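User: Please predict the structure of the protein below. I'd like the answer in structure-token form so I can feed it into my own downstream comparison script.

Assistant: Understood. Taking the following sequence of 282 residues as input:
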Amino acid sequence: MKIFISADIEGISGVATNQQLKTPSEYQRFRKLMTAEVNAAIEGAFRGGAEAVTVADGHGNMSNIFIEELDSRARLVSGSNRVMCQLEGLDETYDAIMFVGHHGREGGSDTAVISHTLAGICVKEMKINGQVVGETEMNAFVAGGFGVPAIFVSGDDAYVREVKETLPDVESVVVKRAIDRFSAELIHPKKVQEMIKEQAEAAVRKIGQFSPLELKGPITFEIEFKGPQQAQMTTTLPTVERLSPTRIRFTCDDIVTAYKHMWGCVIIAITATNGVLGNVNA
């Protein structure tokens, strides 16, 4: 049995502000906590019967997890040059996917801690076939394209409520209570790690009860950006239609292709944010 873990950091216990992830000394603290919570999920997965676990680091430059502190039974996907973003390495050979340390979407109905969708610097809203999605829901749809069900999530209470609108049966651990986008009521990390172990194990033990979140093509993405320059530059891709100064749309035959296309658009938008392309002749 193979398990894939997509790991982020904003939904880790202890994280309540952006400064904690930007100040160098604080960031190192939360890298360690992220690694510890991923380890808890790995331990739970193996206790539940997993034979192999792959972890995809999915925050920022996607190289946050300390490999030297990671459970040696797992493999780690690290680094940001990827065509599959937070799902690099996932394919139809996996039996399930877990989301550890994830967060609520930009503009969600609840105020989740450090809420954003994929790239807070440029993305305001993401829709798939008309449904507003956050990162977890979008990734679960893509996993469904490989026939892989989502079985476990961890993050703050607002995030968990949000995800369960799309994945009502997923096992979950609430690691903190969101007070505001930049404040939270926290639970001690050791307690959180024990809860993650228990629920991850429970999820794997009942893996046969989960079904992939499948979405048949064609697949249409709509992305609302925060600035018109971001939307404008994505139209360098001939498949992209600009619906308004800040909103674009494109359609692909299947969810995996559409996800790669979306990620390309987001990379272009990030580059276009400040209108500086850099020295292209270097």
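That's the full token string. The mean pLDDT is 96.
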